[in-house]
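Milestone M4 deliverable, item 7.
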Amino acid sequence: MLDRIEEWIDATNQQFVHQRKSCVQFSDTFQGFYSTEFLKNAYFVVVDTIPKPDFPELRDVGLGDFLDMDLLGITYKNTYYITPEVAQNLRLHFHELVHVAQWQHLGASAFLQRYITEVQNLGYDEAPLEKIAYAFDTHFNNGGGKVDVPSYIAAKI
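Output delivered:
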């Protein structure tokens, strides 16, 4: 199943390749949290509907609630998708970039396996990968001190 999800992700990212925007535009705003090099290799796409791999097997393993959630953003590898109403929301961009760092550190198969297992066992709100992203976006939003997010992710997960 993980291979099928990754194939869907790759096809989705390819489908939107011409619409994606580089996150390097956030270099000044996110300085000290994400390097310019990291941001050059991260992208976002503004979409009306968040793409999700709605395979029957995912529902069979208990991910129906997640698939049915009304999300404002989702990350697939180095690309995240956001809705127009949050396109200017820096906190959301920051949150999704935490997930880009998680994907980068763990790799696609390990990220997918871990994320799915966490959501299955703990639910979306208690999934550790989500809790890390929410903690970081809160830290950023509250004007917290600079933390190199990708380095932190590599050391802690």
